[in-house]
């Protein structure tokens, strides 16, 4: 046990965690040259394509240091704020953390929030100044920033590059010398923490755990404490690039377990695994359930695909327990699901996975946060509104509360004005401003969560020329003046386009919404009036003019092939549209409200 | 170039097994050819392939190239049909479209051509910015009064990177209005119909019996061989097209290589092309033919897809043929796309 080290890699998004993990795997000989590829641990297609980590990934390495054999369990974590729960789970299985800081970008919002998570769990922090190979790297200044943040010595900061492999030996040395070996009693009853679970089509749910006391043996009768269910440990082992089955996984080590469980819900991440006959009395406290932040309807483009969509969503949930959904129906779109997501990126990813992994073409409706409505009749009992159309009749509503967040933005001092104006426009209230260095500022706001759903990230990027990072935490509900903005197409209300909006912004947003929809809805054989309304009052209107001419002049020998391809493309586009009444609405139109400023 | 074209014809000998019914000199400026050159190409064609008894041999030309001497010269060749790019009989329109000829040349060349050729087609363009309905009517009247047996009338499309596009962008010329084009189209249909012309394809009109055999073949999905740079060919299963660059074309041909790219058509591609081209013709789409050539899946699919457009009055069924109605004519690309099959 004294030769085991458990550590995770944490950082702000894109600071190079997964690339540095690649180098650690190379240097320790954990992957062969043939197996090598960039960001090897980002195994999902989507992760590879987008170049981001979505899920934590654990892997075991063997390393000989000063003549001794060590087992190093590494967990690579995602940097994006939507997936910060993945970080907190990984942290719970480790004694140490590599805190990676990009030598050009320095400390960013998630650097700080992830560091705090690690410190709360008493992890040994090893700061790594990464990407020192970059011409724009600023090693002295950024080292100072890190020293300021951690209160460590400049010598403690390891200079490295995931690209060139520089400094990797030093990192391994620091892991062995500075991260404490796991403590625990090998002879005590089994106590293991579930920190992740993965769905495998052939083997069912694979449960990833960290043993704190005792050991878990193949064939052992075990119990999950929180769910109070018993299982047989059909297979246990450690996590190399492929899984290595073992007779047992011992105290301090990290491994996987297969029990034949088929549904992800049965495995609660944060739960404790113990021996059935001789259970532990040490129950480590689990994790809070991840709460969805954003809700949206997901509907099949073709109404006949509803059942297939349900199947796909269920399968997706096996992989991603943070996805929640419940059936709902919409007058415009028929049957579908109201889904809860961790954030906008998560929503985008779910939609994309449905399309590529399950070949489902879906419409995602305008996303919203979860509101509490209080009626005059029941002024103390909140009525939860996860869908704008659930908002009770305004005349019966006593008040509506919306979720607020504490938002932290780190930017350059040049952009403080821009960022503040944006946040104020987004109904934010500044509560703190700290100069981290003379040129880098941390701004703290309280603002409605709903405002970051609507086109916040893109605009933050624009107003700061890319030099702003953002992190947030929910801080509870506050009373707000909200109205429901409805959209009518061809005089028919389309419920899937409704949004709850602050009353003061409603006119402006209604107008922009009509303009945007005019851009997105293709011309059809008749004029299509677009109207925005609050209650019975029309506040904005536009018209999509009828299509008069849709025929090319010439269609001779050389034109046929090109023209066919053009029309095929057009038809493909139409297949992604949904007919509401007699109006064809393209998929993106339902998200129009998110892109009003493009 | 003529040598290369002849070489290509020989190289592609085995690509055609049936009889050739129509030969077309088109694309670029074939009117630059001398009679000797025309003869050289035609004799290569005749010695390489089997030619039907009375082939249609068309030459495409612009009025400014068709001088008296040239017309006389061509009348002594095997060419028996002229397609003349008149575009308009009005100076203003010709300037706007950046044409090399003027209104006098347009008229004169037709009068001259008529002396030596019976089978003549002219191109006319409508929907030109600032073109009034009266002007368009005058254009059609002129064509009808000249008693030309075949008209190709095209709604103006503003092609990217043309002077016209620049003018419109800069506001020097008002943009093309669909409503205007639609009105001109209606006028065109009415006047040609009254004069006894048959609108046998969306843009083509002829006196009975004067259809262009060449173009009709395209819409019937018949095989064709296109030689020379940018020449497009179809053998019933695959489409191919030559590169457009002249020097490279000549070099490759001289090396005995065919400078072309190919694309093999799937049944679905062929079905889509059938729908797209047939919808433009008076023959329309035949469900029976679809059933025979593509199978039941396609005919059933089509039957289902067409209902919406029959409901909205854009399509109608007449004697086993599905054709676009007057109302649907101007929207026929969109209708075709709706009838397309994308995945099986
Ligand atoms: N020049 C240079 N580029 C690097 C280095 N490390 C990573 N990168 C690049 O930085 C980008 C992000 O790298 P990743 O390893 O995916 O970053 P990450 O921290 O895992 O990102 P998330 O998991 O999405 O938070 C990629 O384009 C890498 O090629 C480095 O040391 N030097
Ligand atoms: Mg990563």
UniProtKB/TrEMBL annotation, chain A:
It is found in: Cell membrane. CDD domains: EF4_II (cd03699), EF4_III (cd16260), LepA (cd01890), lepA_C (cd03709). It catalyses: GTP + H2O = GDP + phosphate + H(+). Its main location: membrane. Keywords: Cell membrane, Elongation factor, GTP-binding, Hydrolase, Membrane, Nucleotide-binding, Protein biosynthesis. It is an enzyme of class 3 (hydrolase). One of its GO terms (cellular component) is plasma membrane. Required for accurate and efficient protein synthesis under certain stress conditions. May act as a fidelity factor of the translation reaction, by catalyzing a one-codon backward translocation of tRNAs on improperly translocated ribosomes. Back-translocation proceeds from a post-translocation (POST) complex to a pre-translocation (PRE) complex, thus giving elongation factor G a second chance to translocate the tRNAs correctly. Binds to ribosomes in a GTP-dependent manner. This is Elongation factor 4.
Automatic annotation (TrEMBL), chain B:
One of its GO terms (molecular function) is 4 iron, 4 sulfur cluster binding. It is found in: Cytoplasm. Probably acts as a heme chaperone, transferring heme to an unknown acceptor. Binds one molecule of heme per monomer, possibly covalently. Binds 1 [4Fe-4S] cluster. The cluster is coordinated with 3 cysteines and an exchangeable S-adenosyl-L-methionine. Its main location: cytoplasm. GO terms for biological process: porphyrin-containing compound biosynthetic process. NCBIfam families: hemN_rel (TIGR00539). Keywords: 4Fe-4S, Chaperone, Cytoplasm, Heme, Iron, Iron-sulfur, Metal-binding, S-adenosyl-L-methionine. InterPro entries: Coproporphyrinogen-III_oxidase, Elp3/MiaA/NifB-like_rSAM, HemN_C, HemW-like, rSAM, rSAM_sf. Residues 1-198 form the Radical SAM core domain. It comes from the Bacteria. GO terms for cellular component: cytoplasm. SMART domains: Elp3 (SM00729). Belongs to the anaerobic coproporphyrinogen-III oxidase family. HemW subfamily. Pfam families: HemN_C, Radical_SAM. This is Heme chaperone HemW.
């Amino acid at each position: 046990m004294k030769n085991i080290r458990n550590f995770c890699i944490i950082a702000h998004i894109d600071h190079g965690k997964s690339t540095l993990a690649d180098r650690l795997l190379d240097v320790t000989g954990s992957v062969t040259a043939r197996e090598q590829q960039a960001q090897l641990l980002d195994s999902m297609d989507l992760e590879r394509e987008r170049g981001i980590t979505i899920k934590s990934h654990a892997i075991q390495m063997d390393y000989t240091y000063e003549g001794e054999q060590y087992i190093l369990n590494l967990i690579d974590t995602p940097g994006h704020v939507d997936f910060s729960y993945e970080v907190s789970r990984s942290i719970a299985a480790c004694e140490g953390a590599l805190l990676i800081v990009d030598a050009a970008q320095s400390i960013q919002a998630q650097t700080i929030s992830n560091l705090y998570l690690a410190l709360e769990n008493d992890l040994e922090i090893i700061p790594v100044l990464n990407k020192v190979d970059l011409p724009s790297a600023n090693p002295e200044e950024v080292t100072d920033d890190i020293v300021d943040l951690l209160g460590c010595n400049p010598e403690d900061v390891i200079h490295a590059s995931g690209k060139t492999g520089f400094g990797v030996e030093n990192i391994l040395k620091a892991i062995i010398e500075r991260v404490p070996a796991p403590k625990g009693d090998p002879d005590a009853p089994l106590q293991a923490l579930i920190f992740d679970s993965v769905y495998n089509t052939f083997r069912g749910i694979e449960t990833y755990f960290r043993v704190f006391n005792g050991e878990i043996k193949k064939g052992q009768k075990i119990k999950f404490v929180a769910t109070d269910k018993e299982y047989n440990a059909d297979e246990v082992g450690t996590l190399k690039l492929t899984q290595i089955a073992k007779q047992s996984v011992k105290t301090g080590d990290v491994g996987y377990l297969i029990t034949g469980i088929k549904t992800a819900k049965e495995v609660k991440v944060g739960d404790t695994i113990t021996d059935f006959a001789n259970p532990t009395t040490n129950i480590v406290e689990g994790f809070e359930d991840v709460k969805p932040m954003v809700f949206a309807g997901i509907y099949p483009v073709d109404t006949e695909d509803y059942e297939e969509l349900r199947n796909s969503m269920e399968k997706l949930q096996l992989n991603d327990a943070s996805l929640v959904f419940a059936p709902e129906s919409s007058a415009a779109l028929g049957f579908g699901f109201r889904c809860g997501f961790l954030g906008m990126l998560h929503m985008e990813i779910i939609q994309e996975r449905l399309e590529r992994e399950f070949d489902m073409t879906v419409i995602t409706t305008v996303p919203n946060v979860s509101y509490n409505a209080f009626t005059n009749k029941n002024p103390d009992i909140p009525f939860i509104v996860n869908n704008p159309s659930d908002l009770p009749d305004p005349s019966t509503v006593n008040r509506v509360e919306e979720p607020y967040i504490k938002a932290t933005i780190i930017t350059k001092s040049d952009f403080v004005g821009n960022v503040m104006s944006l946040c104020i426009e987004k109904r934010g209230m500044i509560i703190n401003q700290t100069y981290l260095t003379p040129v880098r500022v941390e701004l703290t706001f309280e603002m409605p969560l709903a405002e970051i759903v609507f086109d916040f990230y893109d605009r933050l990027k624009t107003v700061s020329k890319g030099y702003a990072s953002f992190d947030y935490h929910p801080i509870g509900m506050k009373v707000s003046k909200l109205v429901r903005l409805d959209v009518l197409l061809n005089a028919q209300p389309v419920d899937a386009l409704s949004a709850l909006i602050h009353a003061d912004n409603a006119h402006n947003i209604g107008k922009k919404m009509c303009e945007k929809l005019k851009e997105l809805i293709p011309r059809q054989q008749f004029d299509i009036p677009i109207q925005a309304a609050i209650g019975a009052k029309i506040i904005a209107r536009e018209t999509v003019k009828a299509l008069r001419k849709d025929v090319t002049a010439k269609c001779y020998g050389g034109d046929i092939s090109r023209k066919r391809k053009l029309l095929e493309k057009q038809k493909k586009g139409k297949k992604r549209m949904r007919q509401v009444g007699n109006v064809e609405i393209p998929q993106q139109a339902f998200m129009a409200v998110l892109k009003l400023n493009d | 170039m003529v040598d290369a074209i002849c070489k290509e014809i020989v190289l592609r000998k085995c690509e055609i097994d049936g009889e050739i019914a129509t030969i077309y000199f088109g694309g670029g400026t074939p009117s630059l050819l001398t009679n000797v050159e025309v003869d050289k190409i035609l004799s290569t064609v005749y010695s390489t392939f089997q030619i039907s008894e009375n082939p249609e041999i068309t030459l495409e030309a612009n009025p400014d190239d068709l001088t008296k001497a040239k017309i006389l010269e061509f009348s002594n060749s095997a060419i028996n049909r002229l397609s003349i790019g008149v575009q308009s009989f009005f100076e203003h329109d010709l300037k706007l479209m950046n044409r090399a000829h003027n209104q006098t040349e347009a008229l004169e060349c037709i009068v001259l051509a008529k002396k030596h050729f019976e089978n003549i087609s002219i191109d006319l363009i409508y929907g030109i910015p600032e073109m009034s309905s009266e002007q368009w009517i005058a254009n059609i009247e002129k064509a009808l009064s000249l008693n030309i047996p075949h008209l190709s009338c095209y709604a103006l499309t503003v092609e990217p990177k043309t002077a016209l596009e620049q003018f419109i962008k800069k506001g020097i010329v008002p943009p093309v209005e669909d409503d205007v084009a639609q009105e001109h189209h209606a006028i065109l249909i009415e006047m040609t119909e009254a004069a006894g012309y048959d609108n046998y394809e969306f843009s083509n009109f002829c006196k009975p019996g004067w259809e262009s055999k060449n173009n009709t073949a395209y819409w019937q999905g018949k095989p064709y061989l296109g030689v020379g740079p940018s020449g497009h060919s179809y053998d019933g299963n695959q489409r191919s097209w030559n590169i457009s660059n002249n020097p490279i074309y000549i070099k490759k041909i001289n090396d005995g290589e065919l400078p072309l790219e190919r694309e093999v058509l799937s049944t679905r591609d062929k079905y889509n092309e059938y729908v797209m081209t047939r919808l433009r013709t008076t023959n329309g789409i035949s469900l029976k033919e679809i059933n025979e050539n593509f199978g039941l899946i396609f005919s059933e699919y089509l039957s289902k897809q067409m209902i919406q457009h029959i409901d909205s009055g854009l399509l109608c069924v007449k004697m086993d043929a599905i054709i676009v109605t007057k109302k649907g004519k101007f929207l026929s690309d969109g209708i075709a796309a709706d009838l397309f099959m994308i995945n099986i």
